[in-house]
Amino acid sequence: MVTDPGLLHWRDPVTDIGHLADVADRVRASIETVIDGKADAITTALVVLLSEGHLLIEDVPGVGKTMLAKALARSIDARVRRIQFTPDLLPSDVTGVSVYNQGTRDFEFRPGPVFANIVVGDEINRAEPKAQAALLECMEEHQVTVDGVTYRLESPFMVIATQNPVEMEGTRALPEAQRDRFTARISMGYPSPAAEMAMLESHGGASPLSSVAPVTDAAEIARLISLVRTVHVSTEVRQYIVDVVGGTRAHPDVALGASPRAALHLIRVARARAALDQRAFVLPDDVQEMTVPVLAHRLLLQPEIMLSGEPATSIAARTLVDVLDRIPIPRPGGGARPLRHGR
Q: If you classify domain 13-230 with CATH, what class do you get?
């Protein structure tokens, strides 16, 4: 008979991570019913979700940015709110406002749309800076302060924001502090001809989102996020992350490199990426795979580099590949002991 209470609650980490991968596969399959041919974008979205980060989806209008955000939100039985960012949006429209109640003769707080598990911010770079700044505290500290009173946000909490390129009419560049709070940035890109044909055949008559049903809930996602935090990162891999982030600051094409917050985000998404591969330890491959989505949007390039006419996102991605090429990859054997064979 087992008498140790610690053994009564012991669970095999490999079994737990296998369950995580199963839940992620269900969410992925749900999203793929409305988003065709975008496996990399969906995977990155799942990684950001499991690391309890925030996702920025940037691309031209009409390629499915909002559709991806809504499909991910609808696949989870959780509180979901949408904010349409417009030039007249006020900070109180985001966080909430204190209203005087004549019955109680006191002010009462009416929560804004950020009080949800998943907040979909549509066209975030069309709003005024003061409205964008309303997200800074909640994205970083998971709390909102109104009239000197601080209110905690629910967990999990994720902001999925879409934006059009700054060359589009009516847009403005997000400030560096705002971009740095987004864990990762992805671009949808145009679908392949085959995927576009399939979209016309399956979605031409009705909204595809009407058929999306939840495949998990917020409580389950919160448990999986806690599990991701237990994925082991060896000292060598931690040092590799520090070297990669530091390499962006020393690169000649970069005026402002990645921040310490970027290093924290990179280690979190590397853990989530390893868990999706059903590993309880992080490999350098996980770091390399997530480096561009996590770091590219944070880099401020030298002005003369921008004169080439090439999109800044392409230059930043190429710069990060160069940084990775310059940094030695940690040798195996000094990190975590594998909990299962293979990847």
A: alpha beta
